[in-house]
């Protein structure tokens, strides 16, 4: 029952965010003003990383599981465990990406991806 309630909560949040976006509450002028205000206090790379992580994790299975876990267990422990887990995962991704970028050119990776996709497309033609 608690998992069902958690899924229902996430669906409502997605619906609310989608309604706010389509209603014009997140228009371009407001976004520019908000961006200028935020860049006074935070660096642009911090804002990009935060946005990518926040919206990438919003409403996924781990968030639903965390809501269910917090319903049964100590919420403070769930928050601290979630923060540490995300921090370790992000740290591994950043260090791995930095190491990989120093060894492989981005152009080579992009070219290899396009070649791979071309060969996959040729299989189905």
Automatic annotation (TrEMBL):
Signal peptide positions on this chain: none
Record's keyword annotation contains Cell inner membrane: no
One example GO MF annotation: calcium ion transmembrane transporter activity
Keyword terms: Membrane, Transmembrane, Transmembrane helix
InterPro entries the record matches: GDT1-like
A Gene Ontology term for the protein's cellular component: membrane
GO BP annotations, alphabetical order: Golgi calcium ion homeostasis; Golgi calcium ion transport
Subcellular location: Membrane
Membrane topology recorded in Swiss-Prot or TrEMBL: Multi-pass membrane protein
Pfam families noted in UniProt: GDT1
Coiled coil spans: none
Family indicated by similarity: Belongs to the GDT1 family.
Name the UniProt record assigns to this protein: GDT1 family protein
Organism per entry: Camellia sinensis
